[in-house]
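Hey all, sorry for the wall of text incoming. These are the two entities for the joint prediction.
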Amino acid sequence: MAADRVEIVEVGPRDGLQNEDRVLSVAEKIELIDRAVAAGVRRIEAVSFVNPKRVPQMAGAEEVMAGVDRGAGASYIGLVLNHRGLDRALAAGVDEVNVAIPASDGFCRRNQGCTVQEMLAAYDGIARAAAEAGMPVSVTVSTAFGCPFEGETAPERVVEVARRAAASGAVEIALADTIGVGVPRQVSDLVRRVGEVADGARLRCHFHNTRNTGYANALAAVESGVTVLDSSVGGFGGCPFAPNATGNIATEDLVYMLHRSGMETGTGLEALAELGEWLGVRLDKAPPALLGRAGGFPA
Amino acid sequence: MAADRVEIVEVGPRDGLQNEDRVLSVAEKIELIDRAVAAGVRRIEAVSFVNPKRVPQMAGAEEVMAGVDRGAGASYIGLVLNHRGLDRALAAGVDEVNVAIPASDGFCRRNQGCTVQEMLAAYDGIARAAAEAGMPVSVTVSTAFGCPFEGETAPERVVEVARRAAASGAVEIALADTIGVGVPRQVSDLVRRVGEVADGARLRCHFHNTRNTGYANALAAVESGVTVLDSSVGGFGGCPFAPNATGNIATEDLVYMLHRSGMETGTGLEALAELGEWLGVRLDKAPPALLGRAGGFPA
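and here's what came out:
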């Protein structure tokens, strides 16, 4: 049963930018974040505390967090993959940290330099330290719908990562279609299976529109009872290990679908569509989002 | 309840081409149709019998029908808007005719030069003559989800057009989101309402992906019991009266979603994706379809 309200987690400043050729300045990142929050977004993956030598697009996380306008009361999320990242996140004053744990070893090795079991062990340590610091932790299960190196991801592996994440105190678990191969029936099935082991953790879903299934997947998630969805303004985003995996679902297009379906998000469609177009100019490419081009309806 | 099998009506040769700047030659149209049929499509909107002075892209319908390979047993559909068109369709030897009847007067006047009531009256005459000739007739209710000139389309108007279409013997009624503004809840609602007056006529749905809701709408239609969907190879298509309304849902992307959801279509994904790319070269523009770019999964 679909909820009347869906919470959008804006991931444009992190997943949306991390694979782009053009690196935004700290001032541009701050403008992106502040404008998304002004458009009504109440949770935003603002920064990543990975090694900036490995992902130069994500440099300047501390400066970004110091510069954003915290007045609107939104929750700022930082991506963290290890203890060093957590320390930086705590020092920078984010409101939440998100840890990405792939469900497939092939992806985990290449993206995080370790096996899934090793990443789960690292996560346990991060979760303990975060709990001591009073910092909420969410876990994103990457490659939950398929892996660019291993092909199909067995649902049992996703369930196992989710179960371990919940056991170590994750307040929220996201199922991420990192390379955009999932279909709606897979979504319903995985949401049901993971819901059985989530142990009270909230479920979130994260879709890419690589093969035009992203919005149908979002709908399937909502129809399966998920109330939190990741999306990226303009629909930018990608994955360095899946070169054609461009495009998170776009916040403005998602919000269009949800609002016209009678669901609330608390965000303003027009401001989001303008922000997507603005970001396209900054990145010097046409946004995958269609709303900025086609316009809302009724006009 | 979703069916195990969904029938694809390939509309690329008609809706996909009718608004493109580049006009395909008769030989190119024949190749497009023959390749779609070779890829497993069993119904195809191959030609339009409108006045070629008004829609030059649709010229050569008779030559196209004379040139296609009828050996595979597919059903060839011709679009017809008046008696003259029906006479041409009968002479050209199509297997079915499709009549488009808008649900909004604003669109009907500009597209067809008459009111909806006048078009319904014309349709009655076409349907009688077609019945005498033993020619099956389907009706596409255009602007069923919204009109570029009038805004919202009241569901009651769609139901009324569908009721009249069924009463005059349409074997199939399509709900068409001509300008790509619909959302899944609207689909479920309209399918239910029209199903109540369809009087045994089969329901078909026709979606454009103008605002990235097209595939979610297709899913909603299938989940509501619809078993026939229009789509266009490469995702080309548009509407001259809605300049930004580019893009039917792409056959290859739709088939990817359906096949990976365990539904059969009888078509071959790889051949369709190649055909979408081929058409992009012919039209000198990148296909809105994403599958040709991203590749199937598993690879």
